[in-house]
Amino acid sequence: MAEESLTVRTQLAAEAAEAAFWATIGEHFPEAKAGDFPPGAQLAFGTASTVAVSAWVAFNVIDPATKSE
């Protein structure tokens, strides 16, 4: 299996982080009967998540494709 690009890994990490975030919110609000969230807010949240993960990756991960030896 070919190694996934940093872009793909970043998106997958952001999606997993969002799922974990909402699971934590649900744990803290057990009385909630649904997980409704406005589509516009979800788009903004998804974008912010991806930007945050991208920033973290930029400061903490060396891309093997661009690494100088």
What does this molecule look like?
The chain is an all-alpha fold. It has a domain at 1-20 and 38-61. The protein contains 2 helices and no strands. The chain has helices at 6-28, 39-60. α1 crosses α2 (39-60). The model has no long low-confidence stretch (mean pLDDT 89).
Write the layout of secondary structure elements.
Blueprint: H1 6-28, H2 39-60
Helix pairs in contact: 1-2
Distance between the termini: 25 Å
Strand content: under 5%
Q: Which stretches of 5+ consecutive residues score pLDDT under 50? A: none
C-alpha-based Rg, rounded: 16 Å
Number of strands: 0
User: Helicity, in percent?
Assistant: 55-70%
Q: Summarize the helix and strand pattern as letters.
A: HH
Q: Tell me, what's the shape? A: elongated
Number of helices: 2
Give the averaged pLDDT, no decimals.
89
* SS-derived structural category: mainly alpha
Task: Indicate the multimeric state.
Answer: single chain
Main pleated-sheet profile:
none
Properties at a glance:
69 residues; mainly alpha; 2 helices; elongated
Quick recap of the structure?
It is built from 2 helices and no strands. With 69 residues, the chain is mostly helical.
